[in-house]
């Protein structure tokens, strides 16, 4: 067992205030029992101006002036004290970086109890040399947020169901906690049919400078969604056209795009599997198959460095003079997670050209 600290004694003090029996009216103050070594803890009980000391551990305290057998009380309450003491600390588990993650499923509902447990826990973690503390507060317990902020916690990120707060304990070390997710991930679908027509849309909501522009279907990747399936989904949602993912042709990295977040935009080549257009009325004003030459001639595309270059790359790909990246599913032993590694295979294994993703047809 760890040696006792002021903070733990504070815990006991809170405990004893909370539990009136058998120490009714008692207040607890720290008392250390160095001769007992590990496992010995001392509490001074002050009841009715009568000071008495008891020790739970191997030896027993003086008990006469309390009027009952402290031995028995001590033994009886040893378990009680330690179990209630547990309850006065927040349930938490250690992370691999020397920090602590609070168990959000076992938070007290009462803000006063939470205040006390949080303070006790902070002292406990500080004493144990813990570093970063992660505190997730579910929306159902949002009344705990101001308590945590008052104790020095900072917002880290929020989702619909919770807010995550953090606290960095070591004052002499810079905070090493990673920041919130820094990027949003978008996809654009370049879908070309056998008539060399590209699938384009007009957005319902756009800036006045983009009004009337025919553009590629674009959108955002959902949580836990693959780039390749997100691109197919977005094209289907906006235009009703089914498609098969071929390659990531290029990606753009931009900063301060939305609410200071950076943006990764993956331009994907897709092979159409159907041609009937059914637009999503919520997002899209119109969609159609547009001759590639006509699409390229639009002033906004022609004059835009990014889209002009994207079209050049796509055209190079059509002539097999460029090869994009295709996803290869694998599991890395580093994290054991199934994932997609995007790369191109120009010649294929053993010079087998059929293995190359660069020979795939577009339509
Ligand atoms: N739209 C375009 O012309 C271009 C898009 N991109 C990239 O495409 C990806 C996706 O971007 P976009 O399609 O432009 O996404 P967007 O900003 O149009 O958002 C997608 C959809 O989310 C909804 N939405 C977004 N913000 C909203 C708000 N504040 N209130 C209500 N609804 C909202 C709308 O339904 C919208 O159609 C990004 O990575 C972006 O960088 C890149 C260049 C041009």
Which properties best describe this structure?
single chain, 363 residues, alpha+beta, Aminopeptidase, Nucleoside Triphosphate Pyrophosphohydrolase, four-stranded mixed beta sheet, 16 strands, 25% helix, disordered N terminus, binds 1,4-dihydronicotinamide adenine dinucleotide
Low-confidence segments: 1-73
The CATH topology name of the largest domain reads: Nucleoside Triphosphate Pyrophosphohydrolase
Count of spatially separate domains: 3
Q: Name the average pLDDT.
A: 80
Which homologous superfamily in CATH is the superfamily of the largest domain?
Answer: Nucleoside Triphosphate Pyrophosphohydrolase
The set of bound ligands, ions and cofactors reads: 1,4-dihydronicotinamide adenine dinucleotide
Helix/sheet category: alpha+beta
Overall body shape: elongated
Number of helices: 8
SSE series = HEEEHEEHEHEEEEEHEEEHHHEE
Q: Largest sheet, described in full?
A: 5 strands, mixed
- What is the percent of helical residues? 25-40%
Strand content: 25-35%
Total strand segments? 16
Cα radius of gyration in angstroms: 32 Å
**Biggest sheet, spatial arrangement of strands:** 4-5-6-8-7
Name of the top-level CATH class of the largest domain: Alpha Beta
* Oligomerization status of the protein chains: single chain
Keywords: Hydrolase, Magnesium, Metal-binding
Protein name: Nudix hydrolase
Family: Belongs to the Nudix hydrolase family.
Pfam families: NUDIX, Nudix_hydro
